[in-house]
Amino acid sequence: MPDSADAANRPAFLLRGHPELTVEAMPLSTELPSGQLQLSRPADRSDKPHLPVRGDLAHIGLAGKYFVPHYAVPMPHAVKSGAVLRGAGKADAAELRALAAGEMFDVLDMAGGWAWGQAQSDQLVGYVEVGKLEAVA
C-alpha cells in the first residue's frame, strides 16, 4: 500500500503523455495551501489582465488562492498568422493586442470557436479564435 502522501502527489490524469504539462512546469506558484481553506475577502483582481481566472474556471496554479468550480492545466498552442488576442470571445470584442505567428498561447478553455487562455510572452489573458491556433505536439 503506498504512503498516503505519495498517493496524494501522484498525477490524477495523463495529458496525452506530455510531462511538460505538469504543475511543476507552470509559471504560477505551485505551493499547496495548508490548513482549512476559507473565503475571507473578495478576490484580489488588481492584475486582472494577467490573471488567468474567470468566474467558472482558473489556471491550476491558482488553486487555493481563487475559489472557482473548475481548474485547468494549460494546453500550449502555437499561434498562426493574423491572430488577435481579444477581451471577449466574439469578433467585435476589444482587441488587446496582435499575436505574432509562432507565439505560444496557453489554452485553458475552448468553446464556441474561441480559446480562452494566456499568452506565454507577456502573460496577458484573453480570447483567440480557435482556427488561429495549432496544438503543439
Summarize the structure in words:
The protein has 137 residues and is mainly beta. The chain is 4% helix and 31% strand. The chain contains one helix and nine strands, in the order H-E-E-E-E-E-E-E-E-E. A hairpin with a 2-residue loop joins strand 6 (104-111) and strand 7. The longest helix has 6 residues, at 4-9. It starts with a helix and ends with a strand.
Would you identify the regions where 5 or more consecutive residues have pLDDT less than 50?
A: none
Mean pLDDT: 81
The structural class is: mainly beta
Number of beta strands: 9
Largest sheet: 5 strands, antiparallel
Strand content: 25-35%
Radius of gyration over all CA atoms, rounded: 16 Å
| Strand order in the sheet with the most strands | 8-7-6-3-9
Q: What is the compact description of this entry?
A:
This protein is 4% helix and 31% strand. The chain has 137 residues and is mainly beta. It is elongated.
Comma- or semicolon-separated keywords:
137 residues, mainly beta, two-stranded parallel sheet
Break the fold down into its secondary structure elements and pairings.
Blueprint (H helix, E strand, L loop, with lengths): L3 H6 L47 E3 L10 E3 L2 E5 L3 E4 L8 E5 L4 E8 L2 E6 L5 E5 L3 E3 L2
Parallel strand pairs: 1-2
Antiparallel strand pairs: 3-6, 3-9, 4-5, 6-7, 7-8
